[in-house]
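[Automated response] Your request has been received and processed.

Submitted sequence:
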Amino acid sequence: MTSPVGSSRKRSSLLITVTGVDQPGVTSALFEVLSRHRVELLNVEQVVIRGRLTLGVLVAAAPEVADGDGLRTDVEEAIHDVGLDVTIERSADTPVMREPSTHTIVVLGRPITAEAFGVVAREVAALGVNIDTIRGVSDYPVTGLELRVSVPAGAAYGQLQKAMARVAVAEGVDIALEDYSLSRRAKRLIVFDVDSTLIQGEVIEMLAARAGAEAAVAEVTEAAMRGELDFAESLHRRVATLAGLPASVLDDVADQIELTAGARTTLRTLRRLGFHCGIVSGGFRQVIEPLAHELMMDFVAANELEIVDGKLTGRVVGEVIDRPGKAKALRDFAQQAGVPMEQTVAVGDGANDIDMLSAAGLGVAFNAKPALREVADASLSHPYLDTVLFILGVTRGEIEAADAVDGLLRRVEIPED
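Generated structure:
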């Protein structure tokens, strides 16, 4: 009768490491030999990078097997026969399953240079943080690497957060630091700002161009950015410049909206994962709703332009969706969907999104103003909305495997920067 793994002191641990060009039959050849020598399997880890295999197998064997030549000779012969290399060494009798990692660090860049990644590793080590595993999460449209790390008990998490923020700025990469826990995989609702986040450009500027009011709108926008006007006041002033425009321009502008690169991929993937998806915008419902319908959004919150006798009056009707209003809309959506706030995600780019991102379980700043980056949990600076998926732990391989099943897999060539 075989004793349970770890129950007998008479068994010794061996680590078998196989390396070389990957091919079918390597694993089966190894395990056929191991089965003949009646070893117990403790752990297996395998990775293949560009066709090169590294396979680690930890086993427990009787002392006479571990110390003898029979197992070693048979394993070496089997692996060499398939053209790979193998090493066998005694392993310390430490627990097989290590303590789970405490955090993930996602590094995104186009490219990620060896120097940049080296700085990340150096800063992590300087704080006594151990890198447990590293895996690639994306090769398109950016390169993405995910590190699972263990922050020692009592260590200053804030120091690690600040260090990663410094590295991101200095090395020109995006770095997101998150807890590695079930909560990371439990996100169920996501909302997007619209202007310069879900779509390219600003709807108010497109409407102002129809009214010949670009300069007036730009002046109000600049005053708001200087802090001289709050959002509600700046909204009313900008909308006032649209008075007299025929309502038909709203349809014209809606037809000219261009989605941010990767938006369709992002939403398609999120729906596959069962997310509730919504829009929270300081823009205008009449322009946004057709897009929301096309994208199969579950929720829409936006301002509504007043129309009388087929023309814009230069006023909005109803409650203004401003900075506090966006956060309220997120909470309302979460309540309607029955989703706790810690399981929500908000993505935006402006100071008007600060409260919404702060309220969400995960706040993502997308090509954002500095004020928003300071409060966001993660900040993305590349113009591809599907980078949000990598922050959520979804890999490019998983995205494309699902797209391939539906016949939607394609890659658009991206010009060199």
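Summary generated for your ticket: The chain has a mean pLDDT of 92. Residues 106 and 146 are 4 Å apart (CA to CA).
If you did not submit this request, please reply to this message.
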